[in-house]
Specification:
The complex is a heterodimer of chains A (398) and B (141). By secondary structure, chain A is mainly β. Chain A has 4 helices and 19 strands. Chain A has a single domain, classed as Beta Barrel (Porin), CATH 2.40.160. A 16-stranded antiparallel beta barrel of chain A has the order 2-3-4-5-6-7-8-9-10-11-12-13-14-17-18-19. Chain A has a two-stranded antiparallel ribbon with strand order 15-16. In chain A, helix 2 runs antiparallel to helix 3. Chain B is an alpha/beta fold. Chain B has a 5-stranded mixed beta sheet with strand order 3-2-4-1-5, with helices on both faces. Chain B is 33% helix and 16% strand. Chain B has a single domain, classed as D-Maltodextrin-Binding Protein, domain 2 (3-Layer(aba) Sandwich), CATH 3.40.190. Classes of the chains: A mainly beta (398), B alpha/beta (141). The interface between A and B is medium-sized, with 40 and 28 residues.
Chain lengths: 398, 141
């Protein structure tokens, strides 16, 4: 069973909202247009070993390109409309409205937004696609791996000064539908009753962050082959017939209560920069593994140069879909329960990633809104082969 | 007057540009109900961390255009950011709908004219450009 790979669907509704929003406002004159661009590519060291981060050729290719446009229009004194349209080379530059929302500025410190929003999973979630805003070419993949980055819903965002500290608090509720590629085949995925909170506390050069999210997660895994003759769905049906409906339920991802937590630290003294994040994904009763991921980054600035080193790690734990099945019993179809237990354990184990990545990167601010970045990632994969990735990107905001 | 003094330390710390220009004055409308702000007050307004003056009135910060000596000095001294760090800081807020950077309002003369006409605005100019149409609430030596 292959890992999840996100394929973005065309979200025509969001696009229509974006266009309707932009059209009447172009005359209003109060339209704010900003954008970002990332052009880059890379190569790997060894094609006989699995690729990493979307890089899988030994020859240098420049195919990691992205153009984003953000339009913000003043609807009334307290209400603004924002849409972010992104075209990526990975999806043939098909234009997607990643965000389209209305903001109600309830007071100087309180904002309420409704529409398609960025889910505040991570410290860098808000500007994930704006490479210019951070040091790396992309944030560490071991931690920034979730396939859903957006949510359709409402959120509440408040910033406050508490004594000498700057704080922010965000809470949201919503749902999301997406199409993922699982085992090479498209598969519907959705969240319902998705909600979360994220808070930051900071002063001058440091910021602490914590976030908690939960959702009922449904991913159609039934069509994924586990042997030449069986699919996950078929195996689950057989398990139920054998009298193990609980185990069958654990194999499928249907309205399972998933939880995601994050802790982060960000430091920028001007001379020194550092960042660290720790995340945990608990899939509840789903067959996905418990993901435990983290990274630590430190860097130093000298003029328009920034040199940084990052250690990131994935240390997942397999779930136990076999729990409750007695060992060594004679059963029909498989002959012995040990076969069933072994198969379930193998499926759970296939969801585990154990990887250490050491990255060395350089950011050079060519001009005040353009950065040229180089990065080397040394990937130590405990379950597959090792790899090295060399990448380069030119990133701007305008 | 633009005077550039490069100290040995600055030369050693690789490429930090010359940082001793003339004084920069942070200015508001003469009718403002306060006579001074702290460096922290000014920084919070220009970094989008607060949207009103300590006295409570709404505050609208305005920048000078990119490349102006006063802007570079102001960003280094108050925001503690060079031009590209400043840009990166704001791009983190702009592309999230969480903030909008102060508008670029031109040079000393343009900013002074704007402040003189708008009781809610706050800006900065070369101290030599200050006259009775505006009130100085902080000075960067």
């Amino acid at each position: 069973m292959k890992k999840m790979n996100s394929i973005r669907k065309k979200h025509s509704l969001a696009l229509i909202i974006a266009l309707c929003m932009a059209a009447p406002l172009t005359q209003a004159g109060d339209l704010n247009l900003s954008g970002f661009l990332s052009v880059g590519g890379g190569m790997i060291d060894d094609e006989d070993s699995p690729g990493y981060g979307g890089y899988d050729e030994e020859d240098l290719t420049f195919d990691k390109n992205l153009l984003g446009l953000q339009v913000t229009g003043q609807v009334s004194e307290k209400i603004t409309a924002t849409a972010q349209l992104i075209a990526r080379s990975e999806t043939d530059y098909e234009v997607n409205a990643e965000w389209a929302y209305l903001t109600w500025q309830a007071s100087d410190s309180i904002k309420v937004r409704a529409g398609r929003l960025r889910t505040p999973f991570y410290m860098y979630s808000d500007f994930l696609d704006v490479g210019y805003a951070y040091s790396w070419i992309t944030p560490p993949r071991e931690v920034y791996y979730l396939p859903f980055n957006n949510v359709d819903g409402v959120d509440f965002y408040v910033t406050q000064t508490l004594g000498i500290f700057d704080t922010s608090f965000q809470a949201y509720f919503g749902s999301f539908d997406d199409e993922l590629t699982l085992g090479g085949a498209p598969s519907e995925a959705k969240t319902r009753n998705q909600m979360g909170v994220a808070g930051t506390l900071g002063k001058d050069w440091w910021t602490l962050r914590a976030a908690y999210h939960q959702a009922e997660l449904t991913v159609d895994v039934s069509g994924i082959p586990i042997s030449p003759t069986t699919t996950m769905g078929g195996f689950a049906t057989t398990l139920t017939a054998l009298g193990y409906p609980d185990n069958a339920a654990r194999l499928l991802v249907e309205e399972d209560d998933a939880v995601f937590t994050e802790f982060g630290l960000n430091i920028d003294t001007g001379r020194f920069v550092a960042a660290a994040e720790y995340v945990e994904f608990d899939p509840g009763d789903a067959v996905f593994s418990k993901n435990i991921r983290q990274y630590v980054m430190a860097g130093v600035r000298a003029g328009s140069w920034l040199v940084h080193v990052t250690g990131s790690q994935a240390k997942d734990e397999a779930t136990h879909p076999e729990a409750g099945i007695p060992a060594n019993q004679t059963i029909p179809v498989f002959g012995n329960t040990n076969v069933v237990i072994g198969t379930l354990q193998a499926i759970a184990q296939s969801q585990v990633t154990e990887r250490d990545v050491l990255s060395l990167g350089v950011r050079w601010d060519v001009a005040s809104s353009t950065a040229l970045k180089f990065q080397v990632d040394d990937v130590d994969n405990k379950t597959a082969g090792d790899q090295k990735v060399f990448s380069v990107a030119l990133q701007t905001v305008f | 007057m633009k005077k550039s003094i490069r100290s040995l330390a600055a030369t050693l710390t690789l490429g930090i540009a010359s940082f001793a220009w003339a004084e920069v004055a942070v200015i508001v409308h003469p009718s403002a109900g306060f006579d001074s702000l702290t460096e922290d007050d000014v920084a919070r307004l220009f970094l989008g961390k607060s949207k009103s003056f300590p006295a409570g009135a709404q505050a609208v910060p305005v920048n000078q255009n990119e490349g102006s000596a006063a802007r570079d000095k102001f960003n280094e001294a108050i925001c503690k950011k060079n031009a590209s760090q400043y840009k990166a800081y704001w791009s983190q807020l702009v592309f999230t709908g969480k903030g909008t950077p102060p508008k670029d309002a031109g040079d000393d003369a343009a900013v002074k004219t704007l402040i003189a006409a708008n009781p809610n605005m706050i800006g900065y100019v070369d101290a030599g450009a200050v006259d009775a149409t505006v009130k100085v609430v902080f000075k960067i030596p």
